[in-house]
Amino acid sequence: MSSSGLGVSNGDIRLMNGSHECQGRVEIMYLGNWGTVCDDGWQLDNAVVVCKQLQCGSAVAALSQAAYGAGVGQIWLDNVQCRGTEAGLSFCSHLGIAQHNCNHNEDAAVICNSNGLSSGGLWSGCRSRATGQVWGWDWNNPTGQSQVLGLRKLFNEMLLHTMERAQL
């Protein structure tokens, strides 16, 4: 594993195919070419770094299996492992630039808590790229109906939070 610090800055990372600039497939620029990031080992700490790097607020989800469509061209990073404190994605541990065992149906994506995805209160959610429907959970009414997000980690965190609130 390496941590190259490729010098990726806000202008060198982007999110594609989301309904706004703070959600979508993760792409980075290297040697003047945009490329994707493979989802092997992709987790919420990686999304935290991407969202912070793009100044898009907190991370809501780290998605895999080309959730925002398959990219084209080079796959620049694989097996990315962030702690959540790095200044940018390229400072996280990874296999090395352009070293991967992936194809584009494994492109990584993130959803950041920005542009209407939070009411500013205790609400978490995301917007479907297919329908535009907002799915979420109202922490002020944890017994209310919630639609299944398909995001195991997010659901587990919500469940844990609800259980902690019930013990208060």
Number of DSSP E strands: 8
Mean pLDDT: 74
What is the correct CATH architecture of the largest domain?
A: Roll
CATH-defined topology of the largest domain: Mac-2 Binding Protein
The H-and-E topology, N to C, reads as EEEHEEEEEH
Give the termini distance in whole angstroms: 43 Å
InterPro entries: SRCR, SRCR-like_dom_sf
Keywords: Disulfide bond, Signal
Protein name: SRCR domain-containing protein
Task: Summarize the model shown.
With 168 residues, the protein is of the alpha+beta class.
Q: Could you describe the 3D structure shown?
A:
This protein has helices at residues 44-53, 152-166; strands at 13-17, 23-30, 33-37, 59-63, 74-77, 109-112, 123-127, 134-138. With 168 residues, the chain is α+β, with helices and mostly antiparallel strands. It has two domains: 10-112, SRCR-like domain (Mac-2 Binding Protein, Roll); 123-166, no CATH class. A hairpin with a 2-residue loop joins strand 2 and strand 3 (33-37). The termini are far apart.
